[in-house]
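Input/output pair, single chain:
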Amino acid sequence: MKTKNQNSFRSSVPTQSRPVPRRGNANVAGLGALIIIGVLVMVAMSAVRTVDTGYIGVKTRFGKIVSDSLPAGLYFVIPGVEDIAQVEVREQKTEMSTSASSKDLQSIQSGIAINFRPDPANAHLLFKDVGTEYEARILDPAIEETVKAATARYTAEELITKRTAVRDEMETMLKDRVEGNHIMITKFNIVNFEFSDSFNHAIEEKQTAEQEALRATNILRRMKVEADQKIETARGAAESVKLQAAAEAEAITMKAIAEAEAQRILAEVVNRDVITLRAIEKWDGIMPKVTGETVPFISVDAKTVGGK
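Output:
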């Protein structure tokens, strides 16, 4: 019974309720903080601009340029008020084909390849005057005009034979036209010249005629060489005959001289022997009387012996 009364007493005593925590307010406050942080991050990110390598930055405020050329790097702007445009200053290449007339009124189709770049120090002025479409607005028309003007100064044949001079003149003319707009030409090449069919045919005929003329000239030159060789051969043979005749004549002369000399010597010997013989024939056998042991030499005068 005691236990039952105690339970009854407890159940009859009113209980005090505990306060329940309100989770909804905390969630709203955290979400608001996140939103504020996100907005701040977005604002901070929108205030940062990057100028990439190979580009020059140009800061504008309400569309008006307010800075010189900015090198590659990180920059801060006022969101919604300022911005940074990028102008590429790396070397670029463009190719185009343009038609023109030569000095002798031949139609020429010229293929041109050009390397160029904006002047980094004045990229902001290029952006101010032309914008980023400077290739179509400035460079392409200048190339067209340059090729037409330079081509008109040469004949079609000179465009081929003086190709280097034509290229140099075109490059100089183009630089003069575009450097005032802060565009630098770094390389200029003539890819090819295309001529009309009639001109190509005329060139082929001319080359054929020149080749035939060269062949005829070579034949004449060869014939002249052969004739000169024959002349030299005949001249050598004649000279050889002449020398041989001279040698034979000289040999005959020398032989005649030798024979005459032999006859002279023989005649002297014979005359001397004959004179001695005559003297002996006329000697009376009596030796001359002289004093001494020496036997005198009998000298006989040829006139005495032979004189009668």
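The beta strands are 48-51, 55-61, 64-65, 73-76, 82-88, 92-101, 107-118, 183-194. The longest helix spans residues 197-282.
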